Every structure is written in structure tokens, then in C-alpha cells.
Amino acid sequence: MANRLHVGTRKGLFELARTNGAWEVVDVRFLGDPVSAVLADADGSVWAALDLGHFGAKLWARDRDGRWRELAVPVFPPKPDDASDDPHPWSLGKIWVLEVGGAAGRLWAGTMPGGLFRSDDGGVSWSLNEALWHMPERRHWAGVAGGEQPGINSVLIDPRNPSDIRIGVSTAGVWASTDAGGSWRLINRGMYAEYMPPEQRDHPIVQDVHRLARCAARPEIVWCQHHNGVFRSEDAGATWREVTAIRPSKFGFAVAAHPVDPDTAWFVPAVKDERRIPVDGKVVVARTRDGGRSFEVLQQGLPQYHAYDLVWRHGLAVDETGERLAFGSTSGGLWISEDGGDSWTMPEARLPPIAAVRFAPV
Amino acid sequence: MATVSFTSALQRFLPAPSVQVDGGTVHAALAVVFASRPALRGYVLDDQGALRRHVAVYVNGQPVHDRVWLTDPVGPHDEIYVFQALSGG
Q1: I need a labelling partner for A342 at 20 to 30 A (CA). Which of A141, A202, A240, B19 fits?
Q2: Residue A280 in 3-state DSSP?
Q3: pLDDT 10s per residue in chain A (362 long)?
Q4: Total structural domains within chain A
Q5: Do the chains contact at B14 and A76, CB–CB below 8 Å?
Q6: B89 within some domain
Q7: Which residues form the domain of B78?
Q8: How much is the pTM?
Q9: Vertex A229: Cα angle to A156 and A194 (nearest 5)
Q10: Residue A224 belongs to what domain range?
Q11: B80 in any annotated domain
């Protein structure tokens, strides 16, 4: 099981290690600076994206020998004159998600304003996925609530075939490529957006996919925490069925899929969008173990009295065994479970608001 | 020669010493600096070469007018100062 956890916060990157059965902070980097995404690889490498308020998005990496260095960030190409009506900037807003790409040295970065970038050298250099960026439909991507830019929040690589990719976009549904990003299709059917005008409610491109998670052992099983509820796909994101059994509420941002069991997933529900707080001020995790037909509301070790923690899209993670989970909140709460979510403990720390948690794979 | 100086807030992230450059325009002056310190460019300019939204450039104590193309003139003895635009409290 994973013994290292990386926590990206509003005020720095925190690394926790499990020693003698307890998790404790063992390293702090970028103290005072917002971390927008974090990725860890099995060899000890770590990547951290910063979202500096004045000076823009930055990317740092720690190599397997423990040395940190700044890398180049993804950069958009010069905006051509005929793109003057593009509603979105051709400039990196922030790196929202980082994923390893299934080939040596390959990384993917999902960004605001909606560019997908690939590196084949461990993040030293990046290239924009032009096929996706130049799709005419991209101009219909909408900004994330509270922000002006659309963002790619999820990049799912099929572990059996790294050329098979799904991305989730806030707000533009689910996109698929089966040729390593050479071409893309908007694929999601079956989701609905109840906040949209009725005639657009079911259109795939208006769907606010908060986060996607896929079962590593059965990659055709994909879970989605959507703005309007929880959905499950059994065909790698093409068709979706609403999971109405979710409780205590259907709104939320984060989802984690069990790496082996296609019927198990975890969510952190909240009161829906206008308020964005836990139901009844109680922090809980919802777990299904039967493909979404029913849910357990897990609360052992979680605050149940006047707790207003919200968990963002990348604030929930599961390790490669499905036994260790962690989630972090906008109030800086961090909880870790070693038993699949049955019980939770809080490390000895009061952290800044948490954007992302990530286990280092073993 | 004109002088380009950078806020100490930038020094947290990377070296940004003052540099003497030929004048011309703000764009030309900054280009000289970035030629020798390419990593600095992304801290000051966005991907299209405009000033970052929360970065300010003053010439002789006055904010530049053209934040996109940086065409404000710079004389041979001018002082260019690059710093963070205050936002928030």
C-alpha cells in the first residue's frame, strides 16, 4: 500500500509519510504559494503545479534523487489573426490536472483555459494537443463556475492501451481519443444539466463534468461526479446512467474509483451548488460496493458537528490497493483511511485549504 | 542606458537582477533581459507576450499605457520597474 501522500494546498505542498502506523508531515515545499495540481510516480518523482497569483502558472518536479527544479510550463502557440473571435484566451491559466501517460516519460496536463498538453520527457517540454484545441466545438466550452475559463479536470488513460484517452471538461462533457490524441470526439450521452434552458438540457457539450474516475482493472467502467448528480458508464464514457442511490446528496466534486473492483467507488457529497457545504454540517464519504445500486454513508472519524468542509475535484484519492484513501477540504481538513473508508484519522496538522491529494504509487 | 529593475517578490522564485539596456520601447527593453534570462519571461508576460494581468510595469514612475504590445517609448536614461500589481487586501 502507498506510504506517501502528497497534498497540494493554497499555501504549499505537503508530503506525508506513514511511519509506525501514523501519518505525519515529512516535507513542505512552496510554502505560501498555491499548488493547483500534484502528481507522484512510483520511482519517487513528484510534479507540482503552482498557480502564482501575480506571476502565473509554474511547474516544478522532484527527481528520484530528491532534487527539485523548475520546469517549463505548457505554453500556447501564438494566437492567429483568424482566432480573434475565440472566447477563450490562448494563454495558460493554470495546470489543473497532471497524469502519467502510460509510456516512458509521458505526462499529460489538463489546463485552464481548456488546452491539453503532452510531454514525452517527464515534463521538461510540452506540446499543445492541437487536434483538440482546434476543434470548432471548443468555442462552445463554457467557463467553470466562479472562473472565466473552461478547464480539463480529468485525463483518463486506458492502462491496457495508452492511446485510448478520455478527458472530462468543466464545462464541456467527456471527450475521447483512441489514437493518442490525434483526433477527438465528444462522446457522452445520458447526462443532463438541469440548470440549462430545457432545449439544451441533454446536450453532451453543456454537461458540467466535475470529475471522472475509472477502474484501472476494468477501464470501461467510469464514474462521474457531475454538477447534477452521479453517473456511471460501462462503455468508457460513451453512455451514462444516473446513479440515483447516492446519499446524503447528489452534488459534489470528487470521485475515486476502486482500482480493481468495478462496483466500488467513493464520493464526498455536499449541499448543491448555491451553498456547497456538507449536508447538516457533517463530513461524510459515500461508498458504493454494488455498482451504484446502494450507498453506505461513512462517517467514523469524520467531523459530525458544525463541519463545513468542501472537497474539490482533486481532493479525494485512493491508492493502488483500494484500501488507503485520503481526502482534503477547503477548510484544510485532511483525513486518511486504511480500511477502504470504514474509518478515518486526521494527521497532526492544520493545513491550508486543500486543492489536491495524491498517493505515491508503490 | 535605460535600467530595468524587478520587484523583490520575484527574487523568491528566480534571480532577477537589474539590467542596463538600450531604450526604444518597453518591449525591446524587456526582450533584452529575457534573452539572457529566458525563465523570467513567463513570470512577467503571458503566452501571447502581453503583460500578465497582475504584473505592472512603470516607466519613470508612470504605468505603461500599452500592456499588450508594450510599445511605450523608453529613453536612454529611463527607469523601467517591473512589479506585482496589488490585488486583494
Answers
A1: A240
A2: helix
A3: 889 999 999 999 999 999 998 999 999 999 999 999 999 998 899 999 999 989 999 999 999 899 999 999 999 999 999 998 899 999 999 999 999 998 889 999 999 999 999 999 999 999 999 999 999 999 999 987 556 799 999 999 999 999 999 999 999 999 999 999 999 999 999 999 988 889 999 999 999 999 999 999 999 999 999 999 999 999 999 999 999 999 999 999 999 999 999 999 999 999 887 788 899 999 999 999 999 999 999 999 999 999 999 999 999 999 999 999 999 999 999 999 999 999 999 999 999 999 999 999 98
A4: 1
A5: no
A6: no
A7: 2-84
A8: 0.95
A9: 115
A10: 4-78+87-359
A11: yes
| Cell 481532493, residue located | A315
Hey, of B47, B48, B87, which one would you mutate to test binding to chain A, going by the most A CBs within 10 A of its CB?
B47
From B14, B50, B84, residue closest to A54, measured CB to CB? B84
CB contact under 8 A, A70 and B9: no
Amino acid at A329: S
CB contact under 8 A, A53 and B54: yes
In chain B, the residue whose alpha carbon lies closest to the alpha carbon of A76 is: B47
Of A53, A70, A79, the CB nearest to B39: A70
Question: Tell me, what CATH number does A34's domain have?
Answer: 2.130.10.10
| Alpha carbon distance A99, A137 (integer Å) | 24
- Asked whether residue B77 is domain-assigned, the answer is yes
Task: Please indicate whether, in this complex, the C-beta atoms of B10 and A55 are within 8 angstroms of each other.
Answer: yes
The length of chain A, given as a count of residues:
362
Instruction: Assign residue B45 the CATH number of its domain.
Output: 3.10.20.30
Q: How far apart are the first and last CA of chain A?
A: 7
Of A44, A14, A8, whose CA–CA distance to A314 is shortest?
A8
Tally of structural domains, chain B: 1
From residue A140, how far is each of A137, A242, A273 by CA, in Å? Answer: 5, 24, 22
Return d(Cα A66, Cα A60) in angstroms, integer. 12
Largest CA distance in chain B: 37
User: Does A58 sit within 8 Å of B47, measured CB to CB?
Assistant: no
